[in-house]
């Protein structure tokens, strides 16, 4: 090969190392942090299925706490652990707010009227009429 085709810094054939170098310290993976993040996101997205969203939120909180403990030991993933823990906590708070609103709504006068009407209803059409009346009362 002529010198015209060589780069200025090449002095000859290059050799590649036989193995990859070890990762730098502090870049170790923390699987629990990834799991906390994934379950935290899933819990928030699946909150409307309360029997799935709330347990996932509790799992995200537990995994987030465990991942933070591992991160202190140098496993990394601290940001993912905090995010998963936070998303799980936000899901639990939103679920609590929704339960409180639902209970207060059902304990209101309109809610008591709905329960009374549904107890007296004997057909599907009567139950639907009760529900429609309840919706109209709540909207006003």
TrEMBL record:
The chain crosses the membrane at residues 47-68, 80-106. Residues 32-97 form the DUF4190 domain. Pfam families: DUF4190 (PF13828). The keyword tRNA-binding does not apply. Residues 8-18 have a biased composition (Polar residues). It comes from the Bacteria. Keywords: Membrane, Transmembrane, Transmembrane helix. The keyword Transmembrane helix applies. Residues 1-25 are annotated as: Disordered. This is DUF4190 domain-containing protein.
């Amino acid at each position: 090969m002529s010198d015209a085709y060589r780069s200025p810094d090449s002095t000859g054939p290059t050799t590649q190392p036989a193995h990859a170098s070890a990762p730098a310290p502090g870049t170790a993976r923390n699987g629990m942090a990834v799991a906390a993040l994934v379950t935290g996101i899933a819990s928030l997205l699946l909150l409307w299925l309360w029997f799935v969203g709330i347990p996932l939120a509790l799992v995200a909180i537990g995994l987030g706490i465990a991942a933070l403990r591992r991160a202190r030991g140098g496993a990394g993933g601290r940001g993912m652990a905090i995010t998963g823990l936070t998303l799980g906590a936000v899901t639990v708070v939103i679920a609590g707010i929704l339960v409180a609103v639902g209970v207060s709504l059902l304990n209101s006068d309109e809610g008591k009227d709905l329960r009374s009407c549904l107890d007296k209803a004997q057909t599907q059409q009567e139950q639907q009429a009760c529900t429609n009346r309840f919706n109209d009362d709540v909207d006003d």
